[in-house]
Structures are given as C-alpha cells and as structure tokens.
C-alpha cells in the first residue's frame, strides 16, 4: 500500500500533474498545419476591462455613459413591421397573386406565418428567460447551444440585408441606374447606422408613419380609381400587349384570380418560368423581418419585455395588411395586369408619388434595420472572441460599432450587384429559415433537457411549438430549394468544423453547452433504470478502481487497466493526506489536472479524489463510495511494490 502515498508537494500539484506542461514533457513541439492555425487563432488576447467580453444570461455589461436606449414601439414594432414589408408590399404582390392565385397566396402566407409564429414563440421564450445583451438572436442561441454550434449560422444570416435593397420601379432604368439607386439607399442607411440607435429609432418611426400614409392611399385607391387600361412597363419584353385592364372591385375579376396560373418572370433576362417554389421563396422574404427587433436587444430599455410584445403585435399588423392587400388586388386587377406589371399599385393610385415614396421607404427601412442589426451581431461575435483576430476590429467600447457597420455596409454593396429581386429572394429565404431552425432547436433542447435555468416568463411556448417550427423550416427549405439548402448546410458545416478546430472560444468553460445538459438528462434517466438487483452473472463486466499515487509513474498501468476493462467501469482513484479546514474543497483545483491527464492518455476513465488522514482510510473510502447507482467498482487494483526507482514516463 505504500506506493499510493502522495510523493509530491501539494503546492506543486499543477506542475506535477499537468501532462501538457512544456517544462516537464518532451521538448518536441507539434508543427502541423492545424497546430499553427490554432496557435494563430488562440493567441492570448489583451485583457479586457471588467464587464467586457463574454456575458451570460442574467448578467449586464456596464453601459457606457451617454448611450440612449429605445422603447418597444420605436425599437421593436416599427423595425419589425418595416423589415417584413420590405419590397414585397409595394413591388411583388402582383407577382404572387398573378401566378399563384388568391387562394394559394393566402395559403402560402398562412404557412409562412405559422412557421414564423412558432419561431417567434421560441424567441419570446428565450428573451424572457433572463437579461438579454447586445447581439440579439446570436446572443440567445450562443448562450444556449455554445459558442461554436450556431454562431456560424448567425454570421451567415445576420449580415445579409442586400435582398431588401434590390428593387425599384418608376425611375430611369438600366444596370448602372439600379446600382446607383441601391448604393444611394445603402449610403443613407450607413449614415443613419453610424449616427447610432437613437437616430435609427427616430428614423424608423418617421418611415413607419410615411409607410402608413402610403399604404392607406393604396387601399383607398382600389375604391376611388375607376376602370382603366394600365400600360405595360418598358422592362417587360415578354409580351406584345401594350396595356392590361384594371376593372375596379368586381366579382368576376375575383373569381378569375382565385386559382394558380403560373407564367414567366419578366424581370429575369430570359423570362424564367414561375412555379410554386419560386413564388413561396419571394413571399417568405415578406415575413423574415421578425428578428429585426431582437437584433436590437442591446439598444432596448427592457429587451425581455419589448421583444415579445413588439414582435407579436408587428406580426399581427403585417398579416392583416398582407391579407387585405391580396384580397383587394385579386378583386380589382386582371390576371394579365398582375403578371405583367408588378408595380401596378403605382398607376392606379389616386396620387402615384405616394406609391413611389412607399417603394423607396420600404426598401430603405428594411435594409436599414437589417444593416444595423447585422452590425450588432458582428460586434457581439467580436466581443465573444469567436473568430479570433478576424473580427477583433469589430468590437466597440462606446456602444456604436463603427467598424462593424462599415463591414456590413460593404457586404451589402457586394450583394446588391445581383440583378433580380426574385433571384436574391430565394437565397435570402433559405438563410433566414436556417437561422429560424437554429432558434427552434435551441428552445427545443432547453425544454427537453429540463434545464433548471430555463424558466421563461412567456407562457405560450412549449416543446411542441419549437418542434413544429424546427420541422417546418427543415422541410420547407429542402422541399422548395434543395440546391440552395444543400449549399447553406455545407457552408454552415464548414464554419462549424473550423470553429471547433480553431476558435479561441471553442474550449472555453465559461460557455454553457446545451449538449452537456442533454447528456446529463439522458444519463441520469438511464442510471435510474439500471437496477443493481437485476444483475446476472452472464452479463458481468469488470468495473475497476485503480489507486494511483503519482500519474507520472503509473502511465503504463493506467493504459493496461484501460485495455482490461472490456466496456466496464474504470475509475482512477487518488488519496491526498489532509483535513478539511472549512475554506472550501481543497481538491477542486487539482481535479482539472487529473481530467487533463485522462485526455492526454486517451483512456476512458473517471477520476475520484479523496482527502483523508491516512492512505488506508482514503483507499477504503474510495472503494466504498466510488461510482454511482449500479455502476460501482467490483475490482480494486494497486501498483506492484518493488525496489526499483520510480520512472517518469511523461519525460520519455
């Protein structure tokens, strides 16, 4: 029994037990490519002042003086409404109804809103579960699933606002003209974003009031404008007709527009055929702005209250507006007009500049809210040190991430070079559904794991709603656009792999991982089912307790027992001579070095440390108390005592 005495001083346990310490191991240094890249990424960052860097749910960063916070209406309701309306409300309703018909369009809106509603309930559940800091949906998901599980999804979707700035009508046309208009709108959004959240809130409120007037004029025009012939737009070169009928409210017109009649999209170069999937891809961009308010979480006075109420009211307002506009368009406009003039609201309006202004404000406001939201996501990624030095300049200490705003603006400038709104809408929809999938997955995992820290004040959430939202997103994205969905899945997988291998935050114990909570939940359940009274000799397994004094001198013995356990339990026990002094657990700091030893030796074992007045009593305690439930050691092993000098196997 003498060989299990502690042979090193307690003050040197860190140096003695750490198998990866360069001072005691072999001088050989790995020189592989992965090692070089990881060292490049994991170079120790400068020390941040207290309150910066990683923040958990329920904690608050110290706010910089002079930062103004915004309320529910200006900070959540208005941005969500404007983001959801985007270019769809004035520019693409004809595309939807003219091809899919009123019934299919309403059914698609119902399906889209159902998926979004399930996702919104998940957002509300997470946002009311504790204090929400800057980064919005990224903050919610990363604090649930861990840093490298879904930050790649949020980086893919959070910085993708160009789809809202691709549109237009009623102005001089041409590729350069369109690029000029979009760049001007993007530049205006950049100016507002650089000014900060306070100006953004005031701008959103002003745009919302303007949009309300423009939308009201569109509804009134359906009743005030008499029957007329609307000219074909110059951009439509697919048909020879010069004009199409606007009939005013008519039952005959409504009946003719009830069912699908897919045509060709005149905004594409060769007039691509339209189908159910392409229509739904464009329609879904009109319901993807629900995260605009959540992404502003760092600028809100009360994020836990503002995000649920503002988002749900915005969802109801936009749903009623879309349904009313769809019904009135189908009852007043001929099929030819809807298919061949997507901006039909402009010529039938009592004062056409209302619609032109509405188009401008809709695209600008949606792009603005997503531009400022994307910059906050990038800032949160930088503060959490997810991508190392790549995003380090994006962090800000004054509440307004200037570099993150500029990076988001540059990404938009690249994205708006796409020629067709309908084409970019397909990619946009896939990326947003990917992020919705992650949100629902996070909530589903929290609920199934019975996590004690998951107690949302939002009571209309359940694991069923999260599961339905998750399955709906996955089914739709692969059923409608399998190629785009596969590309998004490959991109996320590549980022996920890179983050696990290279990210400085991948192994940070400060991040809570949902996977660990799920494992604990399942292991506990099955341990309770493992009844020791039902053991049988034919299913006996060796369950071994190996008593070790110095891991440096016992490495071959540990490997030997690991090979002999044959799928059974393997516990490495160690006795420390001493007594409790009331200042806490004296073995807590030592535990992590034993766990590092297990990783270094690549053995499947548990570690049990014991503090006792003698080795004999400590060994007896370990023999009696090691294990849990039916998984308890039935074999105790000791190193063979001899007169040979001890050998340090870590140095060889």
From TrEMBL:
It is found in: Membrane. Residues 77-148, 190-545 form the Amino acid permease/ SLC12A domain. The chain crosses the membrane at residues 70-91, 103-128, 179-200, 205-224, 276-298, 310-331, 351-373, 402-424, 430-448, 460-478, 484-502. It is a multi-pass membrane protein. This is Solute carrier family 12 member 9. It comes from the Eukaryota. It comes from Iphiclides podalirius. Pfam families: AA_permease, SLC12. Residues 556-643 form the SLC12A transporter C-terminal domain. The lineage of its organism: Eukaryota, Metazoa, Ecdysozoa, Arthropoda, Hexapoda. Keywords: Membrane, Transmembrane, Transmembrane helix.
């Amino acid at each position: 029994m003498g060989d299990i005495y502690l042979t090193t001083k307690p003050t040197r346990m860190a140096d003695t037990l750490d198998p990866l310490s360069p001072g005691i191991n072999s001088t050989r240094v790995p020189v592989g490519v992965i090692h070089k890249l990881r060292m490049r990424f994991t170079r120790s960052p400068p020390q941040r002042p207290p309150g910066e860097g990683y923040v958990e749910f329920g904690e608050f960063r110290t706010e910089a003086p002079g930062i103004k916070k915004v309320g529910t209406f200006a900070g959540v309701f208005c941005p969500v409404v404007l983001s959801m309306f985007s270019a769809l409300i004035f520019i693409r309703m004809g595309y939807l109804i003219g091809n899919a018909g009123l019934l299919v369009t309403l059914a698609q809106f119902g399906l889209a809103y159902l998926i979004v509603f399930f996702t919104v309930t998940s957002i509300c559940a997470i946002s009311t579960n504790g204090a929400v800091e800057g980064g919005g949906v990224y903050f919610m998901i990363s604090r649930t699933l861990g840093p490298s599980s879904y930050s790649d999804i949020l980086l893919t979707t959070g910085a993708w606002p160009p789809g809202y700035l691709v549109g237009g009508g009623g102005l001089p046309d041409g590729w350069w003209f369109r690029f000029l208009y979009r760049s001007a709108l993007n530049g205006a959004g950049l100016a507002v974003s650089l000014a900060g959240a306070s100006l953004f809130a005031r701008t959103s409120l002003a745009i919302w009031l303007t949009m309300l007037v423009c939308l009201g004029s569109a509804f009134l025009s359906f009743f005030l404008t008499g029957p007329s012939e609307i000219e074909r737009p110059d951009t439509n070169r697919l048909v020879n007709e010069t004009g199409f009928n606007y009939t005013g409210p008519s039952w005959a017109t409504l009946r003719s527009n009830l069912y699908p009649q897919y045509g060709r999209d005149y905004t594409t170069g060769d007039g691509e055929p339209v189908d159910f999937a392409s229509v739904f891809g464009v329609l879904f961009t009109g319901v993807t702005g629900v995260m605009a308010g959540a992404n502003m979480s760092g600028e809100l006075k009360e994020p836990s209250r503002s995000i649920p109420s503002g988002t749900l009211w915005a969802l109801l307002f936009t749903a009623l507006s879309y349904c009313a506009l769809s019904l009135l368009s189908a009852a007043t406009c001929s099929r030819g007009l809807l298919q061949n003039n997507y901006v039909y609201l402009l010529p039938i309006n009592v004062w056409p500049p209302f619609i032109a202004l509405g188009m401008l404000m809709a695209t600008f406001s949606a792009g603005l809210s997503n531009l400022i939201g994307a910059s906050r996501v990038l800032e949160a990624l930088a503060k959490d040190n997810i991508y190392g030095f790549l995003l380090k300049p994006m962090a800000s200490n004054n509440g307004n991430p200037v570099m993150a705003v500029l990076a988001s603006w540059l990404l938009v400038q690249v994205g708006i070079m796409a020629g067709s709104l309908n084409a970019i809408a397909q990619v946009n929809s896939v990326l947003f559904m990917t992020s919705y999938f992650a949100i629902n997955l996070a909530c589903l995992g929290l609920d199934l794991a019975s996590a004690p820290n998951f107690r949302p004040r939002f009571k209309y959430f359940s694991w069923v709603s999260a599961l339905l939202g998750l399955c709906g997103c996955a089914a739709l994205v692969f059923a409608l656009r399998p190629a785009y969905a596969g590309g998004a899945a490959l991109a996320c997988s590549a980022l996920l792999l890179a983050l696990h291998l290279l990210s400085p935050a991948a192994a940070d114990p400060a991040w809570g991982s949902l996977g660990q909570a799920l494992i604990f939940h399942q292991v506990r359940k099955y341990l309770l089912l493992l009844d020791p009274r039902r053991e049988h000799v034919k299913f006996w397994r060796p369950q071994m307790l190996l008593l070790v004094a110095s891991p440096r001198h016992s490495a071959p013995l540990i490997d030997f027992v690991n090979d002999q356990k044959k799928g059974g339990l393997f516990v490495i026990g160690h006795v420390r001579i001493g007594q409790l002094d009331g200042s806490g657990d004296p073995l807590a700091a030592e535990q992590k070095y034993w766990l590092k030893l297990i990783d270094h030796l690549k053995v499947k074992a548990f570690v049990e440390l014991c503090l006792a007045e003698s080795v004999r009593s400590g060994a007896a305690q370990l023999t009696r108390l090691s294990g849990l439930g039916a998984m308890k050691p039935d074999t105790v092993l000791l190193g063979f005592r001899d007169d040979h000098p001890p050998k340090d196997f870590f140095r060889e």
